[in-house]
Amino acid sequence: MASLTASATAHPNIAFIKYWGNRDAELRLPSNGSISMNLDSLFTHTRVKFDPGVDEDRLSLNGQEQDGVALQRVSKLLDRVRKMAYLRTFAVVDSENNFPTGAGIASSASAFAALSVAASKAAGLELSESELSRLARTGSGSACRSIPSGFVEWRAAERDRDSFAFSIALPEHWDLVDCIAIISSEHKTTGSSDGHALASSSPVQSMRVADAPRRIDICRKAILERDFDALAQMVEQDCHIMHAVMMTSTPPLLYWQPATLGVMQKVLTWRAEGLAVCYTIDAGANVHVLCPAPLLETVVQMLKQVEGVKQIFAAHPGGAVQIGD
Length: 325
Ligand code: DP6
Prior knowledge:
Blueprint: E1 5-10, E2 13-17, E3 22-24, E4 29-30, E5 34-38, E6 44-50, E7 58-61, E8 64-66, H1 68-85, E9 91-97, H2 108-122, H3 129-139, E10 151-154, E11 165-169, E12 176-182, H4 192-198, H5 205-224, H6 228-247, H7 258-272, E13 278-280, E14 287-292, H8 296-304, E15 311-315, E16 322-323
Parallel strand pairs: 7-9
Antiparallel strand pairs: 1-6, 1-16, 2-5, 3-4, 5-10, 6-9, 7-8, 10-11, 12-14, 12-15, 13-14
Helix pairs in contact: 1-2, 1-3, 2-3, 5-6
Protein backbone atom coordinates (compact mmCIF):
# COMPACT_ATOMS: atom_id res chain seq x y z
CA MET A 1 0.00 0.00 0.00
CA ALA A 2 1.40 3.41 -0.96
CA SER A 3 1.98 5.94 1.81
CA LEU A 4 -0.20 8.44 -0.14
CA THR A 5 2.23 11.23 0.75
CA ALA A 6 5.36 12.29 -1.14
CA SER A 7 7.36 15.38 -1.95
CA ALA A 8 9.66 16.50 -4.75
CA THR A 9 11.92 19.40 -5.69
CA ALA A 10 12.40 20.67 -9.25
CA HIS A 11 14.30 23.51 -10.91
CA PRO A 12 12.85 25.86 -13.52
CA ASN A 13 14.66 25.92 -16.87
CA ILE A 14 15.64 28.52 -19.45
CA ALA A 15 15.04 27.59 -23.08
CA PHE A 16 17.91 28.18 -25.52
CA ILE A 17 15.64 27.04 -28.38
CA LYS A 18 12.07 27.99 -27.49
CA TYR A 19 8.77 26.13 -27.34
CA TRP A 20 6.07 28.39 -28.79
CA GLY A 21 2.85 26.96 -30.21
CA ASN A 22 1.22 23.54 -29.89
CA ARG A 23 0.14 21.02 -32.52
CA ASP A 24 -2.20 19.68 -29.80
CA ALA A 25 -3.05 22.19 -27.07
CA GLU A 26 -4.88 19.71 -24.82
CA LEU A 27 -1.92 17.30 -24.68
CA ARG A 28 0.64 20.09 -25.05
CA LEU A 29 2.31 18.44 -28.04
CA PRO A 30 4.61 21.24 -29.24
CA SER A 31 4.83 22.55 -32.79
CA ASN A 32 8.62 22.36 -32.58
CA GLY A 33 11.38 20.81 -30.48
CA SER A 34 13.25 22.83 -27.85
CA ILE A 35 16.46 22.82 -25.79
CA SER A 36 16.96 24.20 -22.28
CA MET A 37 19.17 24.35 -19.20
CA ASN A 38 17.90 23.72 -15.66
CA LEU A 39 18.56 26.55 -13.20
CA ASP A 40 20.22 25.20 -10.04
CA SER A 41 19.71 27.98 -7.50
CA LEU A 42 15.97 28.29 -8.11
CA PHE A 43 13.51 25.57 -7.14
CA THR A 44 9.96 24.59 -6.32
CA HIS A 45 9.35 22.13 -3.49
CA THR A 46 5.97 20.39 -3.53
CA ARG A 47 4.32 17.97 -1.10
CA VAL A 48 1.28 15.95 -2.15
CA LYS A 49 -0.99 14.01 0.19
CA PHE A 50 -3.94 12.01 -1.12
CA ASP A 51 -6.23 12.55 1.84
CA PRO A 52 -9.52 10.65 2.33
CA GLY A 53 -10.51 13.45 4.75
CA VAL A 54 -10.95 16.16 2.05
CA ASP A 55 -13.78 16.39 -0.46
CA GLU A 56 -11.93 18.40 -3.12
CA ASP A 57 -8.32 19.06 -4.18
CA ARG A 58 -6.57 21.82 -2.26
CA LEU A 59 -3.56 23.85 -3.32
CA SER A 60 -1.44 26.19 -1.27
CA LEU A 61 1.32 28.20 -2.92
CA ASN A 62 3.89 29.78 -0.60
CA GLY A 63 1.40 29.39 2.25
CA GLN A 64 -1.49 31.03 0.35
CA GLU A 65 -4.58 28.96 -0.44
CA GLN A 66 -5.28 29.02 -4.22
CA ASP A 67 -8.49 28.65 -6.20
CA GLY A 68 -9.59 29.36 -9.79
CA VAL A 69 -7.38 28.58 -12.74
CA ALA A 70 -4.28 27.65 -10.68
CA LEU A 71 -6.22 25.01 -8.73
CA GLN A 72 -8.03 23.73 -11.84
CA ARG A 73 -4.74 23.19 -13.65
CA VAL A 74 -3.31 21.26 -10.71
CA SER A 75 -6.52 19.19 -10.35
CA LYS A 76 -6.35 18.26 -14.01
CA LEU A 77 -2.87 16.82 -13.56
CA LEU A 78 -3.97 15.04 -10.37
CA ASP A 79 -6.88 13.52 -12.36
CA ARG A 80 -4.37 11.96 -14.75
CA VAL A 81 -2.41 10.52 -11.83
CA ARG A 82 -5.60 9.23 -10.15
CA LYS A 83 -6.64 7.57 -13.40
CA MET A 84 -3.27 5.82 -13.78
CA ALA A 85 -3.28 4.67 -10.12
CA TYR A 86 -7.01 3.73 -9.93
CA LEU A 87 -7.34 6.20 -7.06
CA ARG A 88 -10.37 8.35 -6.20
CA THR A 89 -9.04 10.31 -3.23
CA PHE A 90 -8.61 14.09 -3.45
CA ALA A 91 -5.25 15.62 -2.62
CA VAL A 92 -3.77 18.37 -0.50
CA VAL A 93 -0.88 20.05 -2.35
CA ASP A 94 1.59 22.38 -0.65
CA SER A 95 4.04 24.10 -2.96
CA GLU A 96 6.80 26.59 -2.25
CA ASN A 97 9.17 28.47 -4.53
CA ASN A 98 12.50 29.68 -3.14
CA PHE A 99 12.27 32.68 -5.47
CA PRO A 100 9.76 35.50 -4.99
CA THR A 101 6.56 34.68 -6.92
CA GLY A 102 6.21 38.31 -8.00
CA ALA A 103 9.76 38.57 -9.34
CA GLY A 104 8.73 37.73 -12.89
CA ILE A 105 10.54 34.38 -13.00
CA ALA A 106 8.26 31.79 -14.57
CA SER A 107 7.50 28.96 -12.17
CA SER A 108 5.13 26.70 -14.12
CA ALA A 109 8.01 24.46 -15.30
CA SER A 110 9.38 23.71 -11.82
CA ALA A 111 5.85 23.64 -10.37
CA PHE A 112 4.46 20.98 -12.72
CA ALA A 113 7.69 18.94 -12.70
CA ALA A 114 7.68 18.77 -8.88
CA LEU A 115 3.91 18.13 -8.79
CA SER A 116 4.13 15.26 -11.31
CA VAL A 117 6.87 13.50 -9.36
CA ALA A 118 5.35 14.05 -5.91
CA ALA A 119 1.81 13.12 -6.99
CA SER A 120 2.78 9.97 -8.90
CA LYS A 121 5.01 8.80 -6.03
CA ALA A 122 2.27 9.52 -3.45
CA ALA A 123 -0.17 7.52 -5.59
CA GLY A 124 2.21 4.54 -5.54
CA LEU A 125 3.15 4.73 -9.22
CA GLU A 126 6.70 3.90 -10.29
CA LEU A 127 7.12 5.98 -13.44
CA SER A 128 10.27 6.15 -15.57
CA GLU A 129 11.96 9.48 -16.36
CA SER A 130 10.28 9.68 -19.77
CA GLU A 131 6.86 8.84 -18.31
CA LEU A 132 7.30 11.57 -15.67
CA SER A 133 8.40 14.01 -18.37
CA ARG A 134 5.28 13.20 -20.43
CA LEU A 135 3.05 13.66 -17.38
CA ALA A 136 4.67 16.99 -16.48
CA ARG A 137 4.29 18.11 -20.13
CA THR A 138 0.50 17.84 -19.89
CA GLY A 139 0.52 20.33 -16.97
CA SER A 140 2.90 22.84 -18.56
CA GLY A 141 4.87 22.14 -21.73
CA SER A 142 8.19 23.50 -20.45
CA ALA A 143 7.81 21.39 -17.27
CA CYS A 144 8.74 18.24 -19.21
CA ARG A 145 12.25 19.75 -19.55
CA SER A 146 12.60 20.18 -15.76
CA ILE A 147 12.46 16.40 -15.15
CA PRO A 148 15.86 15.30 -16.63
CA SER A 149 19.22 16.73 -15.55
CA GLY A 150 21.34 19.58 -16.88
CA PHE A 151 21.03 20.46 -20.57
CA VAL A 152 17.83 18.99 -21.96
CA GLU A 153 16.15 18.42 -25.32
CA TRP A 154 12.41 17.97 -25.92
CA ARG A 155 11.73 16.48 -29.35
CA ALA A 156 8.68 17.51 -31.31
CA ALA A 157 6.62 14.36 -31.77
CA GLU A 158 3.21 13.60 -33.20
CA ARG A 159 2.12 11.18 -30.49
CA ASP A 160 1.77 11.65 -26.74
CA ARG A 161 4.00 8.69 -25.97
CA ASP A 162 6.89 10.05 -28.04
CA SER A 163 6.88 13.61 -26.69
CA PHE A 164 9.18 13.83 -23.66
CA ALA A 165 12.46 15.47 -22.71
CA PHE A 166 15.84 13.86 -22.12
CA SER A 167 19.26 15.01 -20.97
CA ILE A 168 21.84 15.78 -23.66
CA ALA A 169 24.57 16.80 -21.18
CA LEU A 170 24.86 16.73 -17.39
CA PRO A 171 25.32 19.95 -15.35
CA GLU A 172 29.07 19.26 -14.90
CA HIS A 173 29.54 19.27 -18.68
CA TRP A 174 29.65 23.06 -18.96
CA ASP A 175 29.48 25.66 -16.21
CA LEU A 176 27.37 28.31 -17.89
CA VAL A 177 25.50 30.86 -15.80
CA ASP A 178 22.12 32.46 -16.41
CA CYS A 179 22.07 35.99 -14.90
CA ILE A 180 18.39 36.87 -14.86
CA ALA A 181 18.00 40.64 -15.09
CA ILE A 182 14.64 41.47 -13.52
CA ILE A 183 13.09 44.41 -15.29
CA SER A 184 9.48 43.98 -14.39
CA SER A 185 7.75 41.95 -11.75
CA GLU A 186 4.30 42.85 -13.02
CA HIS A 187 1.93 40.08 -13.96
CA LYS A 188 2.00 39.43 -17.71
CA THR A 189 -1.10 40.50 -19.59
CA THR A 190 -0.95 37.37 -21.78
CA GLY A 191 0.46 34.26 -20.15
CA SER A 192 2.25 31.51 -22.09
CA SER A 193 -0.79 29.24 -22.37
CA ASP A 194 -2.83 31.94 -24.15
CA GLY A 195 0.24 32.98 -26.14
CA HIS A 196 0.79 29.47 -27.54
CA ALA A 197 -2.75 29.56 -28.91
CA LEU A 198 -1.98 32.75 -30.88
CA ALA A 199 1.24 31.48 -32.46
CA SER A 200 -0.42 30.05 -35.57
CA SER A 201 -2.06 33.43 -36.31
CA SER A 202 1.40 34.80 -37.17
CA PRO A 203 2.63 34.37 -40.77
CA VAL A 204 6.12 33.94 -39.30
CA GLN A 205 5.26 30.81 -37.28
CA SER A 206 5.32 28.33 -40.18
CA MET A 207 8.83 29.49 -41.13
CA ARG A 208 9.87 29.37 -37.48
CA VAL A 209 8.66 25.78 -37.09
CA ALA A 210 10.12 24.62 -40.44
CA ASP A 211 13.55 26.02 -39.51
CA ALA A 212 13.54 24.67 -35.93
CA PRO A 213 15.48 21.44 -36.65
CA ARG A 214 18.40 23.51 -37.99
CA ARG A 215 18.48 25.72 -34.88
CA ILE A 216 18.17 22.69 -32.60
CA ASP A 217 21.06 20.88 -34.33
CA ILE A 218 23.36 23.91 -34.12
CA CYS A 219 22.42 24.56 -30.48
CA ARG A 220 22.90 20.91 -29.44
CA LYS A 221 26.29 20.80 -31.17
CA ALA A 222 27.36 24.08 -29.53
CA ILE A 223 26.48 22.66 -26.10
CA LEU A 224 28.24 19.35 -26.73
CA GLU A 225 31.36 21.18 -28.00
CA ARG A 226 31.14 23.93 -25.36
CA ASP A 227 31.29 26.46 -28.20
CA PHE A 228 30.02 29.70 -26.65
CA ASP A 229 30.15 31.80 -29.84
CA ALA A 230 28.03 29.31 -31.78
CA LEU A 231 25.61 29.01 -28.85
CA ALA A 232 25.32 32.79 -28.46
CA GLN A 233 24.37 33.35 -32.10
CA MET A 234 21.78 30.60 -32.15
CA VAL A 235 20.22 31.42 -28.77
CA GLU A 236 19.74 35.05 -29.77
CA GLN A 237 18.47 34.18 -33.24
CA ASP A 238 15.92 31.75 -31.82
CA CYS A 239 14.78 34.32 -29.25
CA HIS A 240 14.36 36.95 -31.98
CA ILE A 241 12.37 34.55 -34.18
CA MET A 242 9.99 33.66 -31.32
CA HIS A 243 9.47 37.33 -30.49
CA ALA A 244 8.89 38.03 -34.19
CA VAL A 245 6.06 35.48 -34.07
CA MET A 246 4.68 37.06 -30.89
CA MET A 247 4.81 40.57 -32.36
CA THR A 248 3.10 39.47 -35.58
CA SER A 249 0.30 37.42 -33.97
CA THR A 250 -3.29 38.63 -34.01
CA PRO A 251 -3.58 40.29 -31.55
CA PRO A 252 0.13 41.10 -31.33
CA LEU A 253 2.10 40.30 -28.18
CA LEU A 254 4.84 42.73 -27.29
CA TYR A 255 6.55 41.65 -24.08
CA TRP A 256 9.60 43.92 -24.22
CA GLN A 257 9.91 47.13 -22.26
CA PRO A 258 12.41 49.91 -22.97
CA ALA A 259 14.80 48.45 -20.37
CA THR A 260 14.56 45.02 -22.06
CA LEU A 261 15.93 46.53 -25.25
CA GLY A 262 18.48 48.49 -23.20
CA VAL A 263 19.93 45.24 -21.79
CA MET A 264 19.85 43.56 -25.23
CA GLN A 265 21.86 46.39 -26.78
CA LYS A 266 24.40 46.41 -23.94
CA VAL A 267 24.92 42.64 -24.22
CA LEU A 268 25.47 42.90 -27.98
CA THR A 269 28.01 45.69 -27.43
CA TRP A 270 29.84 43.72 -24.72
CA ARG A 271 30.05 40.69 -27.00
CA ALA A 272 31.33 42.80 -29.89
CA GLU A 273 34.02 44.00 -27.47
CA GLY A 274 35.05 40.39 -26.81
CA LEU A 275 33.06 39.39 -23.72
CA ALA A 276 31.40 35.93 -23.89
CA VAL A 277 27.77 36.94 -23.18
CA CYS A 278 24.44 36.53 -24.94
CA TYR A 279 20.78 36.92 -24.04
CA THR A 280 17.42 35.28 -24.35
CA ILE A 281 13.93 36.42 -23.36
CA ASP A 282 10.78 34.41 -22.57
CA ALA A 283 7.17 35.62 -22.57
CA GLY A 284 7.99 38.61 -20.37
CA ALA A 285 10.22 41.66 -20.06
CA ASN A 286 13.10 40.10 -18.10
CA VAL A 287 16.37 39.28 -19.85
CA HIS A 288 18.33 36.07 -19.26
CA VAL A 289 21.99 36.88 -19.82
CA LEU A 290 24.16 33.79 -20.34
CA CYS A 291 27.92 33.62 -19.83
CA PRO A 292 30.60 31.10 -18.80
CA ALA A 293 30.81 30.89 -14.96
CA PRO A 294 34.21 32.65 -14.62
CA LEU A 295 32.58 35.82 -16.00
CA LEU A 296 29.69 35.81 -13.51
CA GLU A 297 30.88 38.61 -11.21
CA THR A 298 31.92 40.85 -14.11
CA VAL A 299 28.58 40.39 -15.90
CA VAL A 300 26.53 40.95 -12.73
CA GLN A 301 28.43 44.18 -11.99
CA MET A 302 27.91 45.39 -15.57
CA LEU A 303 24.21 44.50 -15.57
CA LYS A 304 23.69 46.39 -12.30
CA GLN A 305 24.72 49.58 -14.12
CA VAL A 306 22.08 49.19 -16.85
CA GLU A 307 19.06 51.44 -16.42
CA GLY A 308 15.89 49.65 -15.42
CA VAL A 309 17.52 46.48 -14.04
CA LYS A 310 15.93 46.03 -10.62
CA GLN A 311 17.39 42.77 -9.41
CA ILE A 312 19.61 39.96 -10.68
CA PHE A 313 19.33 36.22 -9.95
CA ALA A 314 22.20 33.94 -11.02
CA ALA A 315 21.89 30.21 -11.72
CA HIS A 316 24.32 27.50 -12.86
CA PRO A 317 23.17 24.32 -14.67
CA GLY A 318 20.82 22.38 -12.39
CA GLY A 319 20.20 18.69 -11.84
CA ALA A 320 17.15 16.51 -12.34
CA VAL A 321 13.96 16.61 -10.29
CA GLN A 322 14.48 15.00 -6.86
CA ILE A 323 12.06 12.91 -4.81
CA GLY A 324 11.90 13.71 -1.09
CA ASP A 325 12.45 16.73 1.17
C1 DP6 B 1 8.40 31.42 -23.89
O1 DP6 B 1 5.57 25.92 -20.78
O2 DP6 B 1 4.98 28.18 -19.83
O3 DP6 B 1 9.01 30.21 -21.92
O4 DP6 B 1 2.52 24.80 -21.58
O5 DP6 B 1 1.04 26.79 -21.45
O6 DP6 B 1 2.45 26.13 -19.47
P1 DP6 B 1 2.32 26.17 -20.98
O7 DP6 B 1 3.47 27.09 -21.52
P2 DP6 B 1 4.95 27.25 -21.00
O8 DP6 B 1 5.62 27.96 -22.25
C2 DP6 B 1 6.95 28.35 -22.23
C3 DP6 B 1 7.18 29.38 -23.27
C4 DP6 B 1 8.54 30.03 -23.24
C5 DP6 B 1 9.55 29.26 -24.08
C6 DP6 B 1 10.10 28.00 -23.48
O9 DP6 B 1 10.26 27.89 -22.24
O10 DP6 B 1 10.44 27.10 -24.27
